Amino acid sequence: MRNYSSWRSSWRRTPGRAAVVTTAAALALVACGSSGGNSASTGPTTAAAPGSAAAGAIKVGVLTTCGGPFATFEAESLSGAKYALIKDAGAKASGQNPQDQVSGATVAGKPISISFGCSDATPDKAVSEARRLVENVGVKILLGPLSGDEGVAVANYAKGVPGVTFVNGTSGAQSTTLPAKAPNFFRFGGDGAQWMAGLGTYAYKTLGWKKVAILGEDYSYPYTQAAGFIKEFGSYGGQVTARSWVPLTQTDWSSPVAKLPRDVDGVLLLTGGTNTIAAEKAFIQIGKNPGKFLLGGSSVMDPTSFTVGDQLVGLTGGSPVPLGGTTGDWKSYVDGFSKAYSKVPGDSLFTVLYYDGMEAIINGLTEAKGDLSNNGQAFQQALTAMQPTFPNGTVKLDQNRNSVQPAYVVQVVKNGSDLGFKVVQTVDSVDQTFGGLFDTSSPAPSRDEPQATKGSPPPWGK
Question: Exposure of 139 by Cβ count < 10 A (0-12 exposed, 13-18 middle, 19+ buried)?
Fold first, then answer.
């Protein structure tokens, strides 16, 4: 188990910094700065005029959150994407900070030029940055975004620019691929409901929970995570007695926590970043041990919150990555990443899924021999046919270009003086129908949908 207490404080955000992009043959200055604040209202800024890339370079944009409540995940997502270029495209790291670049990346004999885009978890900012990268910088491939509502907005924007290929970062809203269906938008990391496979069964059968309340951020990704849990937990007869949705900009979580019903077996917490830490501390303040009283969504199950302390031990949640895994592929990835970016947790889902996305881009470009002509037709066909084996498992894409993939039930554990994770259960081949519990006629996940309904459990729960 690695100690996560040191890396989080080992780098500091610098407001308004620029990102330098190095290709195999040239140096280009591109746009992306950060306010460094934790409020969506003080989101990231962008530079006015990008420089030019090397002749013949393939321009790739990487869009993440550098401001707002998820700014803490900037380092994970950007480092994950860059590590894929280091591992499989011959790149070298130019520094350890989030927007320090890589040099010398080539795929199919062509240099790769990387430009960063900074959002703040809001759909308007994400689309604005996507548009800047596509229409001003001229990227032909865009990796990202990070957050749920951002993904829905960017997928809809993608429909208007068919000559650009979009590969999702970690945006986990179900609506990003199920109804949006942009033909040039690919998601190799699945949606938030898929990531929760097995957790409803764990709550009902292992913990013996019958009544649950839900507390989460008020937007599409937590709705999607809740939907997966509710469908599975409800299929056994479990009840969801309350759903409390709190604005992303919330800073004081003591009031939302205090207002939750007390006659429940536990609470499903669906938060991320600084909100997770604030919510977990608020539960401790009312005498509830997070490790015993909470289940976590995928963003809760992140080393970010280890600063809360040992009361997290026992906290269990759903994840698209095998946190604490012991397979050779997983350990090889984590070890290799740690050597390249020692200040960043390689096992964060934000690190891994951005790594996976860039890996898919590299593999697709290799298969297409770097050909992005005809609106990237050869490249997109290569992505569609791909069945890559990532550190977190083998995936394939469905007809909506959304992955069928494994999911993991993971738990916070203590090993010596450090907090870490272990895998409790692996659920193979989870698709976007969630074992048949969702289809195109199902209401989109929302504050009130779906309802907990007793019925046939998903295949992994039988």
Answer: buried
